[in-house]
Amino acid sequence: MQRFDRYVLSQLMVVFGFFALVLVAVYWVNRAVAVFDRLVSDGHSVGVVMEFTALSLPAVIAQVLPMASFAGAVYVTNRLSSDSELTVVQATGYSPWRLARPVLIFGIIVALMMSVLTHLLVPKSLEQLRIREKALSGSVSAQLLRDGVFLHPVDGVTFYIRDITEQGELRDVVLSDRRTPGRDVTYTSEQAYLINDDEGPKLVMLSGMAQTMDLEDRRLSTTNFNDLVYDVSELVIAGRPNSRRLNYMPTWELITQPVAAAEEAHDTPGEAVEEGHLRFQLALLVMVAPLIGYAALMVGGFSRFGVTWQIVFAIGLLVLVKLVESLVTDPVRADHTMWPLVYLPSLIGLAVVWVLLWQASRTYRPRRRRRPVQEATA
Predict the structure, then answer these.
(1) Distance in angstroms (rounded) separating the CA atoms of residues 356 and 292
(2) Using CA atoms, how far apart are residues 161 and 378, in angstroms rounded to an integer?
(3) Can you tell me the distance from the alpha carbon of 251 to that of 273, in angstroms, rounded to the nearest whole number?
(4) Which of 117, 123, 308, 309 could bond to 248 as cystine, CB 3.0-4.6 Å?
(5) Would you call 45 helix, strand, or coil by DSSP?
(6) Which helix H or strand E contains 187, and what residues bound it?
(7) Nearest Cα to 195, choosing from 187, 186, 210, 205?
(8) Of residues 340, 327, 328, the one with CA closest to residue 255
(9) DSSP 3-state assignment of 206?
(10) Is 300:364 a contact under the CB 8 Å cutoff?
(11) Is-contact 210 228, C-beta < 8 A?
């Protein structure tokens, strides 16, 4: 590349990194707050929250890369135009097609980043996130061992612990079981312990009383006990091993074996094919987005009033491409043989770029000096 191409490419990469960092921070903080509220309310530690937010980071990055690349191209092109750098370069004979080369190289670099994310990092992170969710869903200590709070682990059951000692002893335990129709049973004990055996977690209550209320006869019976073992495995929603989901299956498997992948994930073959080809489409979209921003700003040329309308026009074109992307979703999911429609948004985007650059080339045609013709002497 020539010096000007390296200069423009460096500017694009710096501005793209800034926009990507800001957008990832905004999206990630919003998601982290939701994860923090959900996990901490279930009694999990801050370390688990950080692990979950870190596993969701690749998906957040893949979501913001198209916007960051588009914003970087628009910002750099606008700055080059306002500083008259594009005007000077065009005066030397550079056409809009020639000036698009560093933008295209920038788009290819970002597309490679997106490919690594969509094909490797995002599926692996989502799979690991699913495994951790299933592991935590069966955590007895996180769901039941919370002192001073009335818990409702399942419908019809209320569980309360006044205090938990450092030795793991539960003080003043109340367990109300209303799952049996026509009968309510309330267990109270001064001391209790939560243990695990081969059959699952058990609650061992000491020095307590069981009160059984017959709702039909309106009779209350009480039973004092020295020790009582209560099975709490049904109170914990344990994560059962289930089939894989489409979003973390390998891309090659989704494209070559859509029927088998759809059966395993309990989805349609169209959804499996769409998921596989959409990973390639996202990389193409990341390459097309900066070209759209650059071409839209090149159409207007230099103006002392700025390029506000060109920026709005570029945003509208990007919205149009995303609208086409949403329109082709239903046909592809209904019939998996229609998978070429997945790439229609990128093709339309490239066509728009070609039309805009062609129009920009017609608008600006540098005049070349004619060399004086020396008359030949006899």
Answers:
(1) 9
(2) 117
(3) 9
(4) 123
(5) coil
(6) strand 183-197
(7) 205
(8) 340
(9) strand
(10) no
(11) yes
Alpha-carbon gap, residue 99 to 358, rounded angstroms: 13
Against a cut of 0.85, is the pTM above it?
Answer: no
Show the tokens assigned to 371: 């060399």
**Tens digit of each residue's pLDDT, the chain (378 residues):** 578 888 999 999 999 999 999 988 888 877 777 666 666 555 566 677 777 778 888 888 998 999 999 999 999 988 888 877 877 887 777 788 888 899 999 999 999 999 999 999 999 888 888 877 766 655 555 556 677 778 877 788 888 888 888 777 888 888 888 888 888 999 999 888 877 776 767 888 888 898 998 888 888 888 888 888 888 777 665 444 456 788 888 888 888 888 888 888 888 888 989 999 999 999 999 999 999 999 998 886 555 556 778 888 889 999 999 999 889 989 998 888 899 999 999 999 999 999 998 888 876 555 444 444 444 443
Helical spans, DSSP H, in the chain = 3-41, 46-55, 57-82, 85-91, 96-99, 101-116, 122-137, 140-144, 251-256, 258-265, 269-300, 308-327, 329-334, 344-363
The residue whose two tokens read 């499996």 is 272
Distance of alpha carbon 196 from its chain centroid, rounded?
37
Q: How many Å is the maximal CA-CA distance in the chain?
A: 135
Cβ–Cβ < 8 Å for 332, 339: yes
State how far the Cα of 273 lies from the Cα of 306, in Å rounded to an integer. Answer: 44
Beta-bridge partners for 206: 191, 227
